[in-house]
Amino acid sequence: MKLQLFRGRYPIVFFRFLMNCLKGCALLLPVFVGTGRADTIWLENGDVLSGEVVGLDAGILKLKTVYAGELSVNWRHVRSVKTDNPLWINLIGENKAQLRELHSSGDDLLIVDEDGYERRFSAAWPVASMAQSEPVLDDNWEFRGNFDVNLENKSGNDIESRYRMNGQMHLDDQWNKNRLKWNVDVERKNEGIWKKDIWEVEYDYSRYFTEHWFANASSKKRYHSRENLRSRSNAGGFIGYRVRETTTEALLNSLGLTQIWETYDREGKQQNLAVGWKMFHRRYLMNDLEYFVDSGLYYRIQSQRQWIWDGEHGVRYKMTDNLSFNVTQIFDFDSQPGEDEKKLDSQLKFGIGYNW
Fold first, then answer.
1. 64 and 20: one domain?
2. What's the mean pLDDT when you consider all of the chain?
């Protein structure tokens, strides 16, 4: 009687039932495997991603998820990370990766070495690379910058033209930072008595030794065709400390010595050694509105013309991913200016910028 139960169509029904069960298990297996390890990524916009961290290379974090496959996340937008298993992690300034764990503590990132040594950071930028197997260290360069332009033209009784262009370019890898910055103003009055050319160019190189400390070499030259102070050049070395740097906020300070060369129309040439302090700060006031300050304060040691404070500050409104509207005030303060000149020279600029 029992043998007859498996005769006819019953073996086929039983076989189909068994196959459906196996298919269901096969479909559920990736879910259970994927949830066995749950790394978590916190982004600066408040989003939270979970999955398996595959690695961080060239500033792009790879995250394997059950719900969306493999995701690519720009590391500059990551606030904190938590990993369930150790990864081969290389920090800025290191020549070799080590097995480490990442944990989130509030808004901070906690890095735990193999020996249990813990370090807390206010952002994720100290991590240069991550991998599941021991990686070979490779230098990855990032090129970015912005270019702003403002053009004005007037015709009628007088013909006036004003051309204002400024911008900067950055070429960075994990521990080397290069910045080239420029500013050009050209003003003409065809039937008048004035014309004015102003240009300024600056180059900075920073070498990071740790996630905070770096050495900086800086050079700068400024020229003005109509002021008593025709040109000012300086070159020097600084020791810097990075307090914080994320996509929404940055604060960097550096202190050092610089040599200043100045050429005056009436007083001639002067040369002085100065102590310098440079500060760069930016912060988003709201989603698309950023405030920035980039300035330097110098004390001339060998001259009665003691204090110089120059730089710029302003706001940048992001209209699209690449276009922005900028309002910038450029200032130059000299505690002992030349003959018939004011201590503070200031200029306000409005312009459209392109960022990449």
1. no
2. 81
